[in-house]
């Protein structure tokens, strides 16, 4: 029975390359009968009121002088990147938490880095960032996950357990640029199958992957993991400047790594649809773009993009999605089992 439920979207995924379904049974996206509205474990937290991602409406951003500069430790150290893995949902790079952490930036604690992973669309022409700004979706989005250093495992209701740093990636018409991304993407061919892992120690630094971003300019809000069970435990930081990466390198994500075996579809559109703000306030530095964005009147996006229930966008590139956020897969599986038993 579970097989049937999973096979239907899977077969559709084979027919429609824009539809992506999870290999494992945790959740899937936007195929008839199996999408974000029917995530079996949605009853846990995914229907909550501080979910991510969101559309950031710059005209509504409030200034907060507490949002000072961050202190990044180990971001310049190439021994903090351990391996690059294909999880079947994304590409994830394990980080050496003993050497890498982040503090400052209005965070109340030091946070230990665990991993970073990437969300993308389908080629550079179909954007796949999770957050959007005034309705603009970027080509890709990096999430660096950092766990508050006073805990070893995040409690399900710990409001500030994670500090996730989100970086947009914008496509350029160059090729093979920048060198750091050429280097990183060269490893994708080593992890074409789900479960593949490749050692990338001492090859590149996180700093090199974030070049061009002024890390003193960012948005802040309280949200959730973007994958089931969508725990509302994330202090989000979304940096304003995008990292600029050439199209050919962005394309490699959606034409190199597969959701399972090389006979299965590529991982594409692994991003969750936008969630309702529900009265939350997004903040930023006082000297931010308060006045440049005063053309607030073009904010048609306010109501269209924040429609929480996510089913609207059958035709947009943001529909078929997937995701991941390695929140304990075992927890997800357990929840799934419970769901089907009920
Ligand atoms: C993924 O591939 C493995 C190895 O071929 C296979 O055993 C497994 O059933 C596949 N999973 C799915 C969901 O297709
Ligand atoms: C999502 O699944 C529901 C329930 O099966 C279905 O009614 C709806 O049409 C699906 N939405 C999309 C975008 O496929
Ligand atoms: C989410 O769903 C669960 C289970 O149906 C329910 O108990 C909970 O109140 C819901 N939460 C919200 C915010 O609607
Ligand atoms: C800034 O931080 C102080 C001390 O934590 C707090 O009292 C104040 O409310 C914060 N300001 C804003 C705008 O959040
Ligand atoms: C990283 O930066 C810190 C602080 O500037 C410096 O002490 C350290 O030597 C640098 N590490 C590497 C590997 O460059
Ligand atoms: C990546 O793969 C390595 C080697 O199999 C494994 O030890 C590690 O736990 C994996 N990391 C993630 C996040 O799956
Ligand atoms: C990545 O960069 C490192 C350091 O410059 C270099 O040693 C390595 O050969 C590069 N790897 C690839 C695949 O380009
Ligand atoms: C922003 O615009 C307001 C109203 O037009 C003006 O009073 C204020 O001085 C401007 N602030 C800056 C930093 O330009
Ligand atoms: C913006 O919208 C407000 C309210 O709809 C209106 O009063 C104002 O004139 C508009 N400003 C511009 C520059 O269009
Ligand atoms: C959004 O739409 C709702 C319902 O259609 C309406 O009540 C609300 O005023 C709208 N908000 C904005 C900011 O337009
Ligand atoms: C989402 O849809 C469900 C069922 O249609 C509804 O009960 C719930 O209120 C909706 N949530 C939001 C935030 O609109
Ligand atoms: C998708 O958009 C195309 C072109 O705008 C339109 O012709 C088609 O009917 C749309 N399909 C759906 C399912 O909305
Ligand atoms: Zn993510």
From TrEMBL:
Disordered: region residues = 284-315
Q: Which UniProt keywords apply?
A: Glycoprotein, Lyase, Metal-binding, Signal, Zinc
- EC code: 4.2.1.1
- Acyltransferase: is it a keyword of this entry? no
SMART domains with a match to the protein in the record: Carb_anhydrase
What SUPFAM superfamilies has UniProt attached to this entry? Carbonic anhydrase (SSF51069)
The cofactor required is:
Zn(2+)
MF GO annotations: carbonate dehydratase activity; zinc ion binding
Question: Is Transmembrane found in the keyword set?
Answer: no
Check the UniProt entry and state the signal peptide residues, or none: 1-21
Q: Which Pfam family name is an example for this entry?
A: Carb_anhydrase
Q: Which InterPro entries match?
A: CA_dom, CA_dom_sf, Carbonic_anhydrase_a-class, Carbonic_anhydrase_a-class_CS
Output the PANTHER family linked to this UniProt entry. CARBONIC ANHYDRASE (PTHR18952)
According to its UniProt entry, the function of this protein is described as: Reversible hydration of carbon dioxide.
Instruction: Name it.
Output: Carbonic anhydrase
